[in-house]
Design brief:
alpha+beta, 667 residues, Methane Monooxygenase Hydroxylase, Chain G, domain 1
Length: 667
C-alpha cells in the first residue's frame, strides 16, 4: 500500500517491493524473468527508459555471445572455459568457473524464449573464435545480438506481467546498516508537481543492473542516452574492483559504434585532415594525410595490421611493437591529440601508399588475410564492395543512422567501449560488503584485465540466474526492518532534497549543467582513458574533487533535474576511477589490458614516435591481485586482494544432492 513521507509540507510517495530490479538491459530483464518464474511475485522493474540502454542500442559488425562450445570436434569443458576467463589476470577463478558452468543455462534460456541463434541442420549451435578465445565459443545474431536478446526478454516480462516503472531515474540509494534498503527515484512525468516527481521505493532485495560508466567519457561508443549508474552504488559504500580495467577501441564519432570485425577485415583506407580555423573539416576537399604510411615498413604489413584490427579490436599494449594492430590506435591518438587533426576511415578507397611502402593490391595481403578473403569469397575491388559481400548488415547499419558509407568518409576516434571492472560481487553476484544488493551486467566487475570477446553477454545472463537463485532460495522471506528503513529513508530524502532545492534556487545559469558534464568527460578521456600518466592524474584527482564539491553551485530549471542529477553521481564516479588509476600507478603498475602508462625513462614503442611516447612495461606481480576501492568516512580507500584460483575439488553426487536439498548450496 502506498504511503508517503512529508517534508516541508510536501508529500513524497513511498512504496515497498520484495525485490527491485533496476535497469532494463539484458541482464536486468533476465533477472526479473528468472525471479518471477521462481515465485518471487512482488517485484518491480525501475528504468529511466525502457527503449534506452546499452543492450538495446549497441553492438558491432557481428556482436558475439560467448558460451561453452558444445557442437564442434574440438573438445571443450567448463574448466577449459574457466581458464580462458581466468588467465587474463586480476580475476577470481571461482567466478570464472561459475560463468563457465552456467553459460549453457543462460544461453539455452535465451533460445527457449525465442532468441534465434543460428544452428546447423543437426541442431548444433556452431561457433567461431573470438578475441582471447582458444576454442570456437563465439556465436552471433549479427550487429544486434544484444538488442534481440532484450526484445525477447521484454516480451517474456510482459507475458509474465512483471510491473515496470518506466521513465523513472534512480537518483540515490538508501543504505540501512550493512544492506541496501531502497532508493530515491525521480518520476520524469511529474517534474511539475510540488514533489518534483521524487518518490521512495523500499525493498528487501535490489538487483542493480544500470550498466557501465557510459557517461564518463567524451570519446565513447556507449549510446548517448546511456550514462550508467555505478556512482550511485559507490556513494552508498559498495565495494568496487578493477576500476582501472576498461576497454578502448576505434569507433565512429557521429554515430557511436564499434569499428571491429568486418569493418577492418575488408581493409579500408585511413587518413587525417587539418581542420579549418573554425574547427570545421571537410574530408572531401581537404588535403589528406595518410599517416599510417610513415610507421609501417611495407604496404603488406600496414594492410595486415588493419586486417587484424578485426580480431584484435580493443587497444592492447602488447600489440603495438613490431608494427602490430594496436599501433593504429596509438597513431589515431597522435593525429588527434598531438597534431590536432581529424581522423577518418574511408571504405571508398583501398589504403593509399607511397613510393616507399608501395600501393595496395591483392598480392600484398598477408597469408592470414588472403586465406580469410578467399574462404569468405571476397572479390570486390574496393573496401565498400568487400563489406557488401562480407557483411551487408554492417553496411546497412550505418545507412539506418543516416550515414552512407558509399558516399562519405567516417570520422573515427579511439573511444571508451566497456568497463571490465565495476562493483565487487561474490559467486552469487551479491555485493561483497552490502547484503541483499546484487550488481549484475556490466556494472559488475568480474572480468579482470583481458576477457574473451562476447563474455560480457554471457556474464550478464549467468548473473541474472545466480542472483535470482540466491534471492528466491535464501532471501525469499522478507526480513527488512521496515521501521528502521523508513527512518533512514526519511533522513536521506531530507538531506538529498536540501541539495536539490539549492540548485533550483535563484536565477538559472543557462548551460551550466552541460559545462559541468563536459568537464569530467574531457578529464576522463584525456587522463583516464587508454593513455595514462601518473603526474597528470595526480593533479586531476584534486580537480575532480573540486567538481563534486561544486555541484551545489549549479542553478537549473526543474525540467533539467533528470539530466543534472545523473551528472551528480557521474562526477563522483570519476573520482573513484581517477583514484584507482593513481593508486595502481603508485604501486608500480605499468601498461596492460587496454591502456598505456607513459614513462620518460620507459620504452619507445616506435622510432618515428616522439619521445613523449615512452611507456612503462607491465608489472607482472600485480596480475594475481585485484584492486578494490570503497568510500569510507568520505575518503576513497584503495587496497589489494589476492585472486582466488579456479576450484579443483571433486563433487560426489550424493553429497551435492544432500546439500542442495537442505539449501546449503545457496548459503
Amino acid at each position: 500500500m502506498m504511503r508517503s513521507i512529508t517534508i516541508d509540507r510536501t508529500e513524497y510517495p513511498v512504496a515497498y517491493h520484495h525485490t527491485l530490479v533496476l535497469g532494463s538491459g539484458a541482464a536486468s530483464l533476465a533477472a526479473a524473468v528468472r525471479l518471477k518464474r521462481a515465485g518471487v511475485d512482488d517485484l518491480c522493474i525501475i528504468t529511466d527508459n525502457l527503449m534506452g540502454g546499452t543492450s538495446r542500442n549497441t553492438g558491432s559488425d557481428k556482436q558475439t555471445y560467448y558460451k561453452l562450445s558444445d557442437s564442434c570436434r574440438q573438445s571443450d569443458s567448463p574448466y577449459k572455459m574457466a581458464e580462458s576467463l581466468y588467465r587474463g589476470g586480476a580475476a577470481h577463478g571461482d567466478l570464472a568457473l561459475v560463468e563457465s558452468l552456467c553459460s549453457e543455462n543462460g544461453f539455452y534460456h535465451l533460445v527457449s524464449i525465442g532468441v534465434d541463434f543460428p544452428h546447423n541442420r543437426w541442431g548444433g549451435y556452431t561457433g567461431y573464435k573470438t578475441d582471447h578465445d582458444p576454442n570456437t565459443r563465439g556465436t552471433s545474431l549479427g550487429p544486434y545480438t544484444s538488442k534481440k536478446m532484450v526484445e525477447a526478454l521484454e516480451r517474456e516480462a510482459v507475458r509474465l506481467r512483471i510491473p515496470v516503472q518506466n521513465h523513472h531515474d534512480v537518483v540515490k540509494l538508501i543504505r540501512s546498516g550493512d544492506r541496501i534498503a531502497g532508493a530515491i527515484v525521480l518520476d520524469k512525468t511529474e517534474l511539475d508537481t510540488p514533489a518534483h516527481g521524487f518518490k521512495v521505493y523500499l525493498c528487501d532485495n535490489m538487483v542493480f543492473g544500470l550498466g557501465g560508466p557510459g557517461g564518463l567519457y567524451k570519446n565513447s561508443v556507449y549510446p548517448p542516452a546511456h550514462t550508467g549508474g555505478i556512482g550511485l552504488a559507490l556513494e552508498a559504500g559498495a565495494e568496487a574492483v578493477n576500476l582501472t580495467e576498461s576497454q578502448f577501441g576505434i569507433g565512429s564519432v557521429r554515430f557511436r559504434w564499434n569499428l571491429s570485425g568486418s569493418y577492418q577485415q575488408v581493409i579500408p583506407s585511413y587518413y587525417s585532415i587539418d581542420p579549418a580555423d573554425d574547427g570545421s573539416a571537410d574530408p572531401e576537399s581537404s588535403e589528406r594525410h595518410y599517416f599510417l604510411n610513415d610507421f609501417f615498413p611495407s604496404m603488406k604489413e600496414l594492410a595486415g595490421a588493419i586486417f587484424l584490427k578485426g580480431y584484435q579490436w580493443p587497444f592492447d599494449p602488447e600489440k603495438i611493437r613490431d608494427h602490430g594492430s594496436s599501433l593504429i590506435d596509438l597513431l589515431i591518438y597522435r593525429e588527434e591529440e598531438i597534431l590536432g587533426r581529424k581522423v577518418y576511415m574511408d571504405f571508398r578507397e583501398n589504403p593509399v601508399g607511397d613510393e616507399r611502402i608501395g600501393q595496395f593490391c591483392s598480392s600484398c595481403l598477408t597469408e592470414e588475410a588472403g586465406e580469410y578473403w578467399e574462404q569468405s569469397g571476397l572479390k570486390g575491388a574496393l573496401p565498400i564492395d568487400r563489406l557488401r559481400e562480407l557483411n551487408p548488415d554492417a553496411l546497412e547499419l550505418y545507412r539506418d543512422h543516416n550515414i552512407d558509407l558509399t558516399s562519405e568518409a567516417l570520422q573515427i576516434t579511439v573511444a571508451s567501449q566497456h568497463n571490465n571492472g565495476g562493483l565487487a560481487g561474490d559467486i552469487w553476484w551479491e555485493s561483497t560488503n552490502l547484503k541483499h544488493f546484487f550488481p549484475i551486467g556490466e556494472v559488475n566487475g568480474s572480468h579482470g584485465i583481458y576477457r574473451p570477446g562476447g563474455s560480457a553477454l554471457n556474464s550478464g545472463q549467468v548473473a541474472a540466474w545466480r542472483a535470482s537463485e540466491r534471492i528466491s532460495r535464501v532471501y525469499r522471506k522478507p526480513d527488512l526492518d521496515c521501521r528502521k528503513a523508513w527512518q533512514t529513508a526519511e533522513t536521506e530524502l531530507g538531506s538529498f532534497l536540501s541539495e536539490v532545492e539549492e540548485i533550483l534556487t535563484g536565477d538559472v545559469l543557462p548551460g551550466c549543467e552541460h559545462k559541468y558534464s563536459e568537464a569530467f568527460k574531457e578529464r576522463m578521456s584525456r587522463y583516464g582513458a587508454f593513455i595514462r600518466d601518473k603526474s597528470s592524474i595526480n593533479g586531476q584527482r584534486a580537480e575532480a574533487g573540486k567538481q563534486v564539491a561544486g555541484f551545489r553551485a549549479l542553478r537549473v530549471d526543474p525540467h533539467r533535474l533528470p539530466y543534472v542529477l545523473k551528472q551528480r553521481h557521474l562526477a563522483l564516479a570519476q573520482c573513484f576511477y581517477l583514484e584507482a588509476i593513481y593508486h595502481y600507478l603508485e604501486e608500480g603498475g605499468g601498461s596492460r589490458g587496454s591502456f598505456l602508462v607513459l614513462d620518460p625513462e620507459g620504452l619507445l614503442l616506435h622510432r618515428n614516435l616522439e619521445t613523449s611516447f615512452r611507456v612503462k612495461s607491465d608489472n607482472p606481480s600485480l596480475r594475481n591481485r585485484m584492486q578494490k576501492a570503497v568510500l569510507e568516512d568520505g575518503t576513497i580507500r584503495c587496497f589489494w586482494e589476492e585472486c582466488r584460483e579456479i576450484p579443483e575439488e571433486d563433487h560426489w553426487f550424493e553429497t551435492v544432492w544432500g546439500e542442495f536439498r537442505e539449501g546449503e548450496t545457496f548459503r
